Every structure is written in structure tokens, then in C-alpha cells.
Amino acid sequence: MDDKKVSMIVCKTPAQGYNKEGWSEMTNWLVEHYRTMDATFSDPVKALAARMNLEGDD
Asked: pTM for the full model?
């Protein structure tokens, strides 16, 4: 992959995963941020995938 470009998006928050009392709050945080990331990146990623498929047909 030396000739490939790679990006990573990181979204994190401190959490005590073994503390069941905090699971509801953690789940809410995950859902909120998943929805934000999905809304932000879904269309651009689909467009890139379509462009890659078109370029691959050459």
C-alpha cells in the first residue's frame, strides 16, 4: 500500500466500559456520533466509490 493514500477519522470519549451504570450514556453518545458521521460522510464516500468504479472500467 505504499502508493495508496489512507485517512482515519477518530471520534472518542473517555468511558468506563465495565461500569454498567454508564452504558446507557455511552450508547447514546455512540448513536449520536454515528449518525453525525454517517450524515457527514455517506454521500462523499458513495461518490468516491462510484468514481473509483468508473475509473476501474478503463
From this structure: 0.68
Q: Among residues 28, 3, 2, 4, which one has the least CA distance to residue 15?
A: 28
Q: Measured in Å, how far apart are the chain's first and last C-alpha atoms?
A: 21
DSSP string, the chain: -TTS------------TT-GGGHHHHHHHHHHHHHHHHHHHHHHHHHHHHHHHHHHT-
Q: Is the pLDDT of residue 13 over 70?
A: yes
